TrEMBL record:
Keywords: Signal. It comes from the Eukaryota. The keyword Cell inner membrane does not apply. One of its GO terms (molecular function) is aspartic-type endopeptidase activity. The keyword Oxidoreductase does not apply. GO terms for biological process: proteolysis. It comes from Brassica carinata. The lineage of its organism: Eukaryota, Viridiplantae, Streptophyta, Embryophyta, Tracheophyta. Residues 38-377 form the Peptidase A1 domain. Belongs to the peptidase A1 family. Residues 1-23 form the signal peptide. This is Peptidase A1 domain-containing protein.
Amino acid sequence: MGGVTHLIVFLSMFSAITLMSEAQYLLAVTKDEPSRQYYTTVYIGSAAMTSPVNLLIDLGTNLTWLNCRKIKSLSTLGLVTCKSSTCKSIPGNGCDRNTCLYRQPRPLGKNTVVTTGRVVQDNATIFTTEGGQPVHIAPSRRFTFSCAVDKYLQGMAPPIAGVLALSPGEFPFWRQMTSAFNVIPKFSLCLPSSRYGYFFMGTPSLGGKKTVPMTSTTLKIDSGKYLISVRSIYVDGVPLTLDPSLLEGGAQLSTVVPFTVLQTDIYNALAQGRLRIEIGMFEFPVSTAPFHYCFEQGASGRNMDVSVMEIGLPGNGKEVKWRFHCKNTVERVLETLICLAFVDGGKKPNESMVIGTHQLQDYLVEFDLSTTQMALCDPLILHNTNCST
Ligand SMILES: *[C@@H]1O[C@H](CO)[C@@H](O)[C@H](O)[C@H]1NC(C)=O
Ligand SMILES: *[C@@H]1O[C@H](CO)[C@@H](O)[C@H](O)[C@H]1NC(C)=O
Ligand SMILES: *[C@@H]1O[C@H](CO)[C@@H](O)[C@H](O)[C@H]1NC(C)=O
């Protein structure tokens, strides 16, 4: 089965999208259900001989790395030399004889052994929708990444063979592609709660979903991370009483953390203080790792009623609110057990808030590096749609 067949299978998946007029580049996002990991497929090699490679989507990685054994044709693969300007601008670079090396941090944590891999270039193929034409294959472009071996993929779901770099740095995938295609340096994610979602580069368009209102806030870029400022956290419109220093560092955005991690005091204020989850007659909290607040659904069959949680962000001259839908606030762990879908990060975590994928899913989140703004849509669920294709 050649590369072209894979590309056509991909295109048919998106045939239902209503097309808009602005140039944009598109990849599918897949949710691996058991692991809750999100990945996309990059087609590596010349268009006639592409190898699809599934890569974990990571906002914190500076250079894509992958198991290069997945690349079937080596005709367009080349090594990057130490003296090249490409090598010099890669953070964490090194040199072995004349081959550029990259230190590959592991986004899934735990294993602290950092490995190095050779930096290489190959062509990558992505898709475009333009001028109302059906999605088609864009001409392939040179793409710089590094090679890792199989055993460094520990902790990743079986279909995944590497990490797609989406950091704010100089060599993430989105920056290489927007620069190669000469489009505005921005990308957007619509993480699905199930099946397939979207990853756009350039201006996003989701057909009918484009009419959903978007709000913007300033992105703060710090040590290769994306952060947003948080002014307050509201439950049913009332701000939580928190030591203001807890919110000073802002909230980091992550596509590898499954549930938002909160510093202990923030977590307790949310869980013990105000947030109501009413689902039945028995509301004694029980604990099921990694959650502390879970509720057994009573026999009454009453509909679930969950407080509205919002975070207040600095907008254009006024505060804007990011409203989490009930589905982003709780998680059904068992048939009758519903948990507050946030995790206690301890008293002194590096970041007092890390917003994870359960809270990001079913929003279109745009990272605009031309203005250093993040734009966020209303919960799509309130508009009777979602991120799934
Ligand atoms: C690889 O990408 C470059 C542009 O970056 C292009 O000029 C070249 O034709 C591509 N090669 C193949 C085999 O597709
Ligand atoms: C990414 O690069 C930045 C510098 O540009 C650095 O501060 C950060 O630690 C790097 N991230 C990782 C995960 O290596
Ligand atoms: C906190 O940051 C330090 C230094 O960057 C790192 O070694 C450590 O693993 C981080 N801890 C957590 C819980 O992420």
